[in-house]
Structure formats: C-alpha cells, structure tokens
Amino acid sequence: MSNYSNTQEKLSRDDMAQTVAADIPSGAFVNLGIGQPTNVSNFLTSEQGVTLHTENGMLGMGPVATGDDIDEDLINAGKIPVTELPGASFFHHADSFAMMRGGHLDVCVLGAFQVSEAGDLANWHTGAEGAIPAVGGAMDLAIGAKQTWVMMSLFTKTGESKLVEALSYPVTGLGCVSRIYTEVAIFELRDGKVFVRSAHGISFEELQSKVPVELTKA
After folding, report:
1. Which one, of 65, 47, 30, 183, lies nearest residue 74 by Cα?
2. Active-site residue 55, yes or no?
3. Each residue's pLDDT tens digit, 101-138
4. Which of 9, 47, 55, 84 is catalytic?
5. Among 55, 79, 97, 108, which is least packed, fewest CB within 10 Å?
6. Cα separation of 25 and 8, whole Å?
7. Position 170 pLDDT exceeds 80
8. Residue environment code for 112-126, b if the CB has 16+ CB neighbours within 10 A, otherwise e
9. Which of 37, 172, 167 is nearest to 115 (CA)?
C-alpha cells in the first residue's frame, strides 16, 4: 500500500518543523542543527519525552527563548537563546562530542547545501572563493547519530536542485542521510532508492522533471 500523498500548498518553515517534530520517536535523544532545524524544538510535545542535546554542552534543552525567558548565558550551538526543561544538565564540550561520536544520539536534524541520492551530505562549505567554512560538529553528528535527517529548501535561488546524483560541494559525511524535509517534498532514502513520501504544491511528475535523480512514490 502506498504512503505517498500530495497537497496543494508548499510547506512553510513552521510546517516543516512541525512535521519533523511529529516524526521524532518518543523518548529519543536528538540534536537539532543551526538554522531551520532549531525551529523543531518549538513543536515537540511533553508527551513525546524527547531529550534535546546541544553540542556546546546541554541535555534537556527546551524551546527557543523569547521575551523575559531570554538568558544571554543560556544559548544553543547556534548562539540562539534557549530554555531549559526540568532535569536539564550541563557538561564539558568534550563530553558533548563523546555523546555525538559514541552513537548515543537517536536522531540529528541538519541543514544542507546538497544531499546525494546515496545519502551523502554537504553542509559546511560550498567551495566558493571567500566563503567562510563552518563545519562545527556537523561531521561528528552526521556520522555519529543513529539517524541523520536534513531540513533544507529543495532548490537554490537560481533553481538548481539540492538533491543531486553526486555531491559537487565538499563532503560532510558519506551515506548518512536517511530522510530529507523540504518545502515541496519529503524524501526517504533507503534500499538504494529515493522515495517521495509526500509532495506539496507540486505534482510528482513536475518534481521528477526538476530533480536529477530517479524518484519513487513511497
């Protein structure tokens, strides 16, 4: 039975974040990368029992802080003010990376410049002259987490697909991405294929014409 679905509207950033949050398994330990993934924390429910990890040394991170909840000394790895949940703990940066590298995270959600059909990830440098490399802990997260998911816009500003046959940007991790959330489609990468779980504001046929990899309805 097919799980593929289609809607008339593109997903907003909040829609994407809400979808990712709903897909995270109950009780999971999760790292949210800088950029779009940070927004996922605002849509997790207490019933899910998800514990958020931030690479600068915190377990039990809550939603993004606003108004009077902002504490400039309490930030995530992207320097965004965050809240802490009951039972939150703080630790050395080296211990944080040991959690990442030791396979203790169930899911990490990262942004990306490109993802290949084989699940290869490029998200730290475009190779452009003068661009500032910003790898941070992305390599450790991408390879260390049990599942690596990506949130990104599917197309560049000039219309090229960021889902590609092979990376043209410097590699972050090989064969690590299993799911991609975009404004027009959600993809699952498994069994050597790229499955489209859902399409939003675009038909499957149009999506296939704009993405240079073979797509299969989930």
Report:
1. 65
2. yes
3. 999 999 999 999 999 999 999 999 887 777 776 778 89
4. 55
5. 79
6. 28
7. yes
8. bbbbbbbbbbbbbbe
9. 167
